[in-house]
Write a structure and sequence with these properties.
Layout: H1 2-6, E1 13-17, E2 23-26, H2 29-34, H3 38-41, E3 62-67, E4 73-82, E5 91-97, H4 98-116, E6 121-125, E7 131-134, H5 146-149, H6 162-178, E8 182-190, E9 198-209, E10 215-224, H7 226-243, H8 251-262, E11 269-275, H9 276-279, E12 293-300, E13 315-316, E14 332-334, H10 338-343, H11 348-354, E15 359-369, E16 372-382, H12 390-426, E17 432-434, E18 438-445, E19 457-462, E20 468-474, H13 479-497, H14 503-523, E21 538-545, E22 550-556, E23 562-565, E24 568-573, E25 592-595, E26 601-605, H15 607-610, H16 613-634, H17 638-649, E27 658-665, E28 673-678, H18 684-698, H19 705-722, E29 727-733, E30 736-743, H20 763-770, E31 773-779, E32 782-790
Antiparallel strand pairs: 1-2, 1-5, 3-4, 4-5, 6-7, 6-10, 8-9, 9-10, 11-12, 11-16, 12-13, 14-15, 15-16, 17-18, 18-27, 19-20, 20-21, 21-22, 22-25, 23-24, 23-26, 26-27, 28-29, 29-30, 30-32, 31-32
Amino acid sequence: MSDVVGRLPSDGAVMVLDNRGTMLACTPAVKELLGVGGRELIGRPFADLLAEPGEGPLPPGGPATLGHRRGRTVQVRLEVLPLNGGSEAQCLVRAVPVTTAADREQDDALVRALFGQTEIGLVLHDTDLRIVRTNQPSDAIGLLAGTGAGPGGVALDEVLVAADAQAVAERLRRVAETGKPVTNQVVRVHRREAPEQERVVSLSAFRLEDREGRCTGVAVVFSDMTERKQAELGLALVSGAEKLLLGSLDIVRTAEGLAGVLVPEYADLAAVDLAEAALVGEEPGDFSLGAPLRRVAVAARSGVWPAELLTVGASLRIRDPEQEFVYRRSALAVPDLSELRIALAGDVEGRRQVLPDVAASLLMMPLQARGLLLGAAVLWRFGDRPRFDADDAELGARIGSRAAISLDNARRYAREHRTAEALQRSLLPQAVVRVSAADTAGSYLPAGITTGIGGTWFDVIPLSSCRVAFVVGDVAGHGVEAAAAMGRLRTAVQTLSDMDLPPEELLTHLDDLVVRLSAAEAAAPGPNRGQGTVLGSTCVYAVYDPITGVCTIASAGHPPPVLSVPGRPGADFAAVRPGPPLGMGGLPFEPAELAMEPGALLAFCTGKLLAHGEDGAKKRLRQLREQVDAAVQEDRTPAETGRTVLRHLLPEAPDHDVALLMARLHVLPPDSTAVWELPADPEAVGRAREMVTAQLSAWDLEELAFTTELIASELVTNSIRYAGGPVGLRLIRDQVLICEVSDPSQTQPRLRRARLTDEGGRGLFLIAQLSQRWGSRYTHRGKTIWTEQPLPVN
């Protein structure tokens, strides 16, 4: 009897009754339940414990109310187990508090429910991690039915491929050894029966223990997430393709971004082939006519692109478009490449396009947008990865359509970028200009993006009397409109410079023109109104005279040039005070007259070359000064200096277009000029002819003596007659012979057609016939009329 009681469960109080209901034995738990020790209860009828007497000596089982020693009652559930051992003991009665009984029933119900359903997997492993029980059917993910497990269970490597079985076993072993549960770990497994099919499982595991806390196995709860993960992956891929719209507008970078979206999550290899016409912004041609494609982007899961495939930059053509799914604008999945390998066995070019050695399946995605087929993306999967199927083809079509919109935007952007850059470059002068006054080299660097291409320009304009003008400007706005606005301003500057205006006066006229143009732009209809506005443009204009060595500079909101002088280290900005940008009004434009030494270097640049944040601007300015200084000390050419400056300041494509103009200044030798001052006396005309003849003889230019005498005589006579004196006469021997006459009058001469009866009015007509070019310019003390004659050919 005591042996039976000792083996009874410990939860609840257990009592042994004879056939009369007398208690023969009980567990110590009865005292905890009723407040009465076992010794006091042995020999008493069980009915004495009931708050309400029953109908017979033995309890029927079920709910009951027992009396407690302290006078209260205890609600219990009685479980009666008959004993048929032929002994005095008739039955076992276990009294369990109703709350405990309810918990046990819920536990039992939970276990039954878990093992009775198949939506949530439940697997029990023994201490050897063999599967001993499961609620899953035999074809479930890596598990076997409970009936099929057998008394000894099933090892994991009998169900999963070896690598997956080992990985799962390591997780479960840690749970069994440490008792620390694992929750919601995502694992990828492959069944031995179908190793090519990957399943994604969310796994939780906890240790099973007996009443003494010893490990009896591991319980695993899992759920199949394969379809959900595939759906999430599809959404992520489509979203990634859509996000390409927010990225770079460079078509090659967009293609590279697409390849990066597809590998490694969706494919092991990816290549993007685009029509060569699309790469330059044009609409792709007809693939049936053999329009060429170019492989512009590749991506490999391993990081190494297979040597047997075409690499980036390789050209290819669709040789039989009518047989190509891509040409028919349909995505194609090829789960098995065996037939394709046979078909391309003798086609080396075809294999290099679409058939890597280790590929198991292939997917071709057409890239079409707005009715244009831009090319295709080709994807491959290897080894035990799931093969591409019809669902992948459908997903690939969705991805390709999203990505194609980004590629087409980049294509259209490339066309606009190329158009804007071509227009910009067509409006700029030649890069290298050599005149007597200076050697110059201009550099224009377009922005890497169309939104950065604006109206940046530079110009070198020869002026009268060997002088030269340097111009650098920047128009507000971007794109084709800004380039066109730049052309208008550059033409205006050239026209105004032909009037030989001082820099400050030229900028004043230009400022007035900008105000009128901006008013017209504001009133113009259309969606692009104001995009290329000239309002707020900047410009620096400098005039250098190689005879006097003076450079006069004025600025409208533009940085002054950096000046470096030979033998004087420390290049710095020229001492010029910039005025307001064009069209903004306010302060006048103040000129700065700077005496220049032979060999001095002026570096004119746009403000965008230096605009790179506060720290970046300081660094770029320092680099600009250092390079200009080094160019002077090392006697580099302006072109070489410009290239070096841009290489140091802009190692990558800038966000805005920039212009840089380098000018090394020269002076004319003193013996190249002859200057005289004549009184307002008619007799001075004869002396002027004599001095001109003598000077030309000293220069070995006797061939020009007759014409030059006539020119000087006529100009000096007109100045004495209409302006008074003193009259200045200057001859300059340069690439041409220049004759200048200056007087204090501000009245400009005007060429007109004299009538037969007129006694005068033919002087300027005669001068125009004798000279190659002629003109006049205002000076601070009057005006100067100049003529140019070509030198005789030796």
